[in-house]
Amino acid sequence: MASRIAVGIAGTGSYVPERVVKNAFFERLVDTSDEWIVQRTGIEERRFAADDQATSDLALEASKRALEAAGVKPEELDLIVLGTLTPDYLLPSTACLVQDRLGATHAGAFDVNAACTGFLTALHTGEAFIAAGRARRVLVIGAEKLTSFVDFTDRSSCVIFGDAAGAAVLTPLDECGQGEILRTTLGADGKGYDFIHMPGGGSRKPPTQETLEKREHFIRMRGRDVFRFAVTYMGEMVREMTEGYSPDEIALVVPHQVNKRIIEAALERLDIPPEKVVVNIEKYGNSSAATVPLALDEAVRAGRIEKGKLVVLVAFGAGLTWGGTLIRW
Ligand code: COA
């Protein structure tokens, strides 16, 4: 077997829509309060995309910023992999729309649907292509316009979601000289498919008047079950990714921004100090596949990651799915 090519992260980028929506907005829609939302989730505000913006529009902006940071031109890309659960269309893929609008004329493009684990699934796919010598420059994206699929009559789910996008450009490590991807892992357990799902609109229940009336084309969530699953798997992923390394080497943990209480509960058990954990859920809520690349990009741009130190990415979500990545920055 040919030897594996080491892969690095050449640049990151992110984008959030301009419209800021405070918790008070939901007090007018459902029986809730700013106090409940802040206490139970840590969220103070989130971004809503404009009516004329779709997932590909958010993805495009994040991608341009990642390409600029990486110093890579769109036509140099070999592949685009986009993680989303809120594609512009069921057909074709959102990655193809981004490919066209970027002018990535030599790139293949496809979407992956692993819900909140979408960015890590895209990242691991891109890493594998480069490691195997099948591509040299890969754009990986996590992007969501969740507000198109949120049921604004369901108080337990509508308050937590926001819209955003994040991206990263991967190249062989000898080309970019930073962000070496050391470990990756992905897992799934479809027995929990209905913890978070959209019952209608797919091939099992194509859209009908009845599915619309029953609001089955919106996200349904068993929040308490997700909470338990998330605390367990976030902890497990961090432990698996950092095994064999000393805690001093770890610069940052970038977890999926699902709920501040979930992040705190999981990381408390691992004895990771709060200053090493990236939390921005108070500003953006849960933007599913976009949370990890958005938080990573903010940390990179804020200079929070010292070169040579370790960064751990962890995510989990509908499927059920989960994943972890270890990077030497
Ligand atoms: N405002 C006020 N009360 C609310 C509320 C809201 N927005 N949402 C739920 N409640 C109520 C519930 O109805 C329940 O009332 P009851 O005791 O009278 O039945 C009570 O608050 C407690 O509900 P519970 O579901 O136990 O709350 P929680 O502390 O688990 O918080 C979530 C709910 C949804 C915030 C939390 O479970 C969570 O973050 N889960 C994971 C999120 C998720 O699924 N993300 C998507 C995939 S990553």
Write up what this structure looks like.
It contains twelve helices and 13 strands. The protein has 329 residues and is of the alpha/beta class. The protein folds into two domains: 7-177, Thiolase/Chalcone synthase (Peroxisomal Thiolase, Chain A, domain 1, 3-Layer(aba) Sandwich); 181-279 and 290-328, Peroxisomal Thiolase, Chain A, domain 1. Strands 1-7-6-4-5 form a five-stranded mixed beta sheet, with helices on both faces. Strands 8-13-12-11 form a four-stranded mixed beta sheet, sandwiched between helices. The chain has a two-stranded antiparallel ribbon with strand order 2-3. Strand 4 (79-83), helix 4 and strand 5 form a beta-alpha-beta unit. The longest helix is centred in the C-terminal third of the chain and has 20 residues, at 223-242. The radius of gyration is 19 Å and the shape is globular. It starts with 6 loop residues before the first strand and ends with a strand. The model has no long low-confidence stretch (mean pLDDT 96). Residues 32, 36-37, 40-41, 116, 155-156, 159-160, 196, 221, 223-224, 226-227, 258-259, 286, 317 line the site of coenzyme A.
Task: List the defining traits of the structure above.
binds coenzyme A, 2 domains, Peroxisomal Thiolase, Chain A, domain 1, 24% strand, alpha/beta, 12 helices, 5-stranded mixed sheet, 329 residues
Order of helices and strands: EEHHEHEHEHEHEHEEHEHEHHHEE
Biggest sheet, strands in spatial order?
Answer: 1-7-6-4-5
At the fourth level of CATH, the homologous superfamily of the largest domain is Thiolase/Chalcone synthase
Give the rounded overall mean pLDDT. Answer: 96
Spatial gap, N to C terminus: 28 Å
**What is the helix fraction of residues, given as a range?**
25-40%
Task: Specify Rg, calculated over alpha carbons.
Answer: 19 Å
Low-confidence stretches: none
SS-based structural class?
Answer: alpha/beta
- Bound small-molecule species: coenzyme A
Estimate nothing, just give the exact number of structural domains: 2
Shape: globular
